[in-house]
């Protein structure tokens, strides 16, 4: 079994190293705020260019369909102008997390839908659903937290990482299944089921980790753009109030609201000084954060 584990580990490492391009020196970036970590090598197991190309096609098709259904808000819509103004403040700070992002063709659109959702596809293609703005009555700071979070998924190449993780997990799971089948002398289909379940739980854990990373990177981006990172706490309190029923965290791809708030509070001392500097005042002179109440249902 030890030999099997070592073989799987070496296979994963070799796969990622073979796909890794030569690293270019990063431009000098601020060292305060949330510490920058290296992008996951697992993303290199996937074809990032193909993922971005498909994302671009999907986004264009989605916008065309929304336009045909009169669900795509026009450029002069007040909420579109609001979203694009917030994006213009955030985007100059993306290079700290992914230098290539400054070359992306950034787009920001609003879709008329009751969904409480937003996304940013690979390549900087952002869309908000009107429901998240109206149902949660978001302030600009809270919109910036949502936008920063979604942008962070693209910056940290989570789509490529997830695709690469799935490929590697499939290979390692198959090797483990064959090893267990030979060791115990049982039908490989039985061990396939067991190792498949373990691999799926591992992928869920990876996904929860990506959500936490996106929360923290989003806080950092928002703070540098002059938006109050404490809005993240208010945002998830609103999310919890509007969605009392939620899946158990252990089998969910998303952390619970309580976990997210705890992690944000833990890292708040790192980003509050960044936000205070953007406001030109000391951190201890910041006024309390004020949100707007949820609309009455």
Give a written overview of the molecule.
Residues 1-25 and 167-204 have low confidence and may be disordered. With 297 residues, this protein is mainly alpha-helical. A 3-stranded mixed sheet has the order 1-3-2, sandwiched between helices. 58% of the residues lie in helices and 5% in strands.
Helices and strands, with pairings:
Elements (H helix, E strand, L loop, with lengths): L1 H18 L28 H21 L9 H13 L16 E5 L6 E4 L3 E5 H6 L4 H16 L2 H27 L3 H37 L6 H12 L14 H23 L18
Parallel strand pairs: 1-3
Antiparallel strand pairs: 2-3
Please outline what is shown here.
The protein is built from nine helices and three strands. The chain is mainly alpha-helical.
Separation, N- and C-terminal Cα atoms: 58 Å
Number of DSSP helical runs = 9
pLDDT average, as an integer? 78
**What is the H/E order?**
HHHEEEHHHHHH
Largest sheet, if any? 3 strands, mixed
Please state the CA-atom Rg, rounded to the nearest Å: 21 Å
- Low-pLDDT runs: 1-25, 167-204
Query: What strand line-up does the widest sheet have?
Result: 1-3-2
Helix content: 55-70%
How many strand segments?
A: 3
Quaternary status: single chain
What number of structural domains do the residues give?
A: 1
Would you tell me the structural class of the helices and strands? mainly alpha
């Amino acid at each position: 079994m030890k030999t099997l584990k070592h073989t799987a580990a070496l296979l994963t490492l070799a796969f990622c190293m073979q796909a890794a391009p030569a690293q270019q020196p990063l431009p000098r970036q601020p060292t305060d705020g949330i510490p920058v970590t290296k992008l996951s090598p697992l993303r290199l197991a996937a074809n990032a260019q193909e993922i971005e190309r498909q994302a671009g096609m999907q986004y264009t098709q989605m916008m065309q369909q929304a336009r045909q259904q009169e669900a795509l808000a026009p450029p002069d819509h007040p909420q579109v102008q609001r979203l694009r103004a917030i994006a213009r403040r955030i985007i100059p700070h993306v290079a700290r997390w992914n230098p290539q992002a400054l070359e992306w063709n950034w787009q920001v659109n609003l879709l008329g839908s009751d969904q409480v959702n937003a996304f940013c596809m690979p390549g900087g293609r952002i869309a908000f659903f009107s429901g998240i703005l109206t149902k949660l009555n978001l302030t600009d700071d809270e919109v910036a937290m949502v936008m920063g979070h979604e942008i962070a998924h693209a910056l940290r190449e989570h789509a490529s990482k997830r695709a690469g993780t799935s490929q590697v997990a499939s290979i390692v799971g198959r090797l483990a299944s064959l090893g267990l089948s030979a060791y115990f002398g049982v039908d490989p289909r039985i061990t396939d089921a067991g190792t498949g379940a373990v691999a799926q739980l591992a992928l869920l854990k990876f996904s929860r980790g990506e959500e936490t990373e996106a929360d923290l990177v989003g806080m950092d981006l928002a703070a540098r753009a002059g938006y109050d990172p404490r809005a993240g706490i208010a945002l998830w309190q609103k999310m919890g109030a509007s969605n009392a029923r939620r899946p158990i965290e252990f089998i969910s791809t998303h952390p619970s609201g309580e976990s997210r708030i705890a992690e944000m509070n833990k890292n708040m001392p790192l980003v509050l000084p960044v936000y205070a500097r953007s406001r030109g005042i000391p951190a201890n002179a910041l006024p309390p954060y004020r949100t707007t109440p949820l609309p009455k249902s």
